Structure to design on (270 residues):
């Protein structure tokens, strides 16, 4: 397609987000203090904010976080509001540094627990909660000591078993590719290599509908290759540290080049 047509398509996509935001703002004006409008507005600002430059994105996430908190204050029983508070708390803290992220962990967990308690059929909230347990279980002794010394808080506790239960719950409600990927990684961390290989094989043949799906499928290919046919250096590493066969390093690094190239080309093929 001509370059002008491509640009028009991009502008059209951005305009759609702006139009939706205008409608939600209008609804919020007509019906103020409506928690359903507020958390949807927070979600839309998060979606639009991801396309901004770093500093502007951080400002938008702050506004979105305030809207989600306002929704939860109006209706404490709104599970969607709690889910978006958890998501936006993480993104807000991520920009503020590692210490801020460490301090935010307990708050994120609280809102995720509320989200799944209020809406047990929310597959996304269950998956994010699984990610929380996975990342906490993945922290090594040095990271926990750093958190205690420099952030001034003790690292929270979490296990791969708890993460697996959350991912399985999400999968039972509604299977989706990113949750299936974390399910496979958790099986691998727990030493269930056969279950992990089956899951990675299924993911490597999955249909791509987004950039994130492409990343997941590419990383699944890498896991299959390294687990099924480890090279000489991997075999030596596994002999020295047997537990490493459940931790495949540099997957994200090996994926990044192809991931960025593929989607920068695909983005312009309207």
């Amino acid at each position: 397609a001509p370059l002008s047509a491509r640009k028009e398509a991009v502008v059209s996509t951005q305009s759609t987000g702006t139009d939706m935001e205008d409608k939600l703002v209008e609804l919020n004006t007509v019906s103020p203090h409506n928690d359903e409008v507020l958390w949807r507005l927070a979600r839309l600002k998060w979606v639009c904010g991801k396309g901004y430059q770093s500093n502007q994105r951080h400002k938008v996430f702050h506004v979105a976080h305030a809207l989600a908190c306002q929704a939860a204050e109006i209706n404490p029983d709104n599970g969607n509001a709690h889910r978006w508070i958890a998501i936006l708390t993480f993104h807000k803290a991520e920009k503020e540094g590692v210490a801020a992220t460490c301090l935010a962990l307990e708050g994120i967990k609280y809102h995720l627990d509320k989200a799944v308690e209020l809406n047990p059929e929310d597959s996304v909230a269950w998956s994010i909660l699984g990610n929380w347990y996975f990342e906490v279980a993945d922290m090594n002794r040095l990271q926990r000591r750093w958190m205690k010394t420099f952030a001034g808080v003790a690292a929270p506790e979490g296990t791969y078993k708890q993460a697996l239960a959350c991912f399985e719950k999400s999968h039972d409600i509604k299977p989706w590719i990113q949750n299936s990927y974390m399910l496979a990684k958790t099986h691998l961390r727990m030493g269930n290599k056969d279950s992990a290989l089956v899951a990675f094989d299924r993911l490597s043949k999955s249909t791509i509908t987004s950039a994130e799906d492409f990343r997941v499928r590419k990383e699944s290919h890498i896991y299959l290759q390294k687990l099924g046919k480890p090279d000489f250096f991997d075999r030596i590493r596994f002999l020295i540290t047997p537990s490493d066969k459940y931790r495949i390093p540099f997957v994200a690094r090996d994926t990044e080049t192809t991931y960025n190239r593929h989607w920068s080309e695909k983005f312009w093929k309207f």
Summary: The first helix runs from residue 3 to 30. Confidence is low (pLDDT under 50) at residues 1-15, 252-270.
